[in-house]
Amino acid sequence: MTGFDGATTIAVNGTSLAYQERGQGDVVLFVHGSASDMRTWHRQLPAFGSSWRAVAYSRRFARPNDDIGEGADDPMMPHVADLVAFVRSAGLGRVHLVGHSWGAFVCLLTALRYPDVVNKLVLMEPPVLTLFVSMPPGPLQLLRLLVTRPRLAGAIVKFGTGTVSPAQRAYRRGDDDAAMEIFGRGVLGDAAFEGLSAERLAQVRANRRADKAQLMGAGFPPLAAASVRTIQAPTLLLHGDRSPMLFGGLTRELERLIPDAICTEIPQASHLMHEDNPERVNALIQEFLAAPADRLMDTDLR
């Protein structure tokens, strides 16, 4: 399943969201990241559909949904509201949430604000920068972080000056292709970006306007460590062994804060780990979802 075959739509919050599903049973809901849509999960839906009801939807403004208007903002909280409305309108009950990157941040916020919706939580490198700094970060924030977490501070500065700022400048001068390449290389790493297939690059380009809106807009919402500590859903955190250092640092911080969290590294994978190494990602998530909640910490998922 590599396209939108078999997709249907549901109306939520004044928009229409397309989704695909496979199988029956407890629901596993997949939430994609930036520069992506439901097609990013084409190696997950068949694998999970044999044991669960696997559902992948395209978030607001992602293909094949209506595109965002040029120059509009795309803040994160409406996506949280969309996710909850989608679950309730479709009658999915409590779901296992599996999120990647920007979508993983959406899932994290959903678990914080709507715990009744979430059964178990799987987060693949959510960019939780606002645990440490505002967006954009202030100099005093970075200075304090440099004293307490020097490696993480350096990674944040490198990401801001080497990826975010030049990508924003490229978008402002109308060079969308350059902006997408700068941001893609910064998030994935050079080798992973250069290894993207023509089909995957087409998916990036098809979703570029929403990606641009997220990068040029208000940014990520505030996130307090004290709030993260209240998450009750058993959580599996995944990060790629070839991902930029920033994502590893952020993931390890979530492991420290979330009370019932397991963190595992995916070999031979960068930020797009569910595409880079789908067999390992699928096996780990399936084991995590199948394990009784009271025995999660005794598994060998680490």
List the helices and strands and how they pair.
Layout: E1 8-12, E2 15-22, E3 27-31, H1 45-49, E4 53-57, H2 77-89, E5 95-100, H3 102-113, E6 118-124, H4 139-148, H5 150-172, H6 176-188, H7 190-194, H8 198-206, H9 208-216, H10 225-228, E7 235-240, H11 245-257, E8 261-266, H12 273-276, H13 278-290
Parallel strand pairs: 3-4, 3-5, 5-6, 6-7, 7-8
Antiparallel strand pairs: 1-2, 2-4
Helix pairs in contact: 2-3, 4-5, 5-6, 5-11
Brief digest:
This protein has 302 residues and is α/β, with parallel strands linked by helices. Helix content is 44%, strand content 16%. It has 13 helices and eight strands.
CATH C-level class of one domain is Alpha Beta
Rg over CA atoms, rounded to whole Å, is 18 Å
| Order of helical and strand elements | EEEHEHEHEHHHHHHHEHEHH
Query: What is the CATH topology assignment of one domain?
Result: Rossmann fold
Describe the main β-sheet briefly.
8 strands, mixed
CATH architecture field of one domain: 3-Layer(aba) Sandwich
C-alpha termini separation: 30 Å
What is the general shape? globular
Proportion of helical residues? 40-55%
- The counted number of beta strands is 8
Low-pLDDT runs = none
Residue-averaged pLDDT: 95
- In quaternary terms, these chains amount to single chain
Strands ordered across the widest β-sheet: 1-2-4-3-5-6-7-8
Strand content: 15-25%
Fourth-tier CATH superfamily name of one domain: Alpha/Beta hydrolase fold, catalytic domain
Strand-pairing-aware structural class = alpha/beta
Number of helices: 13
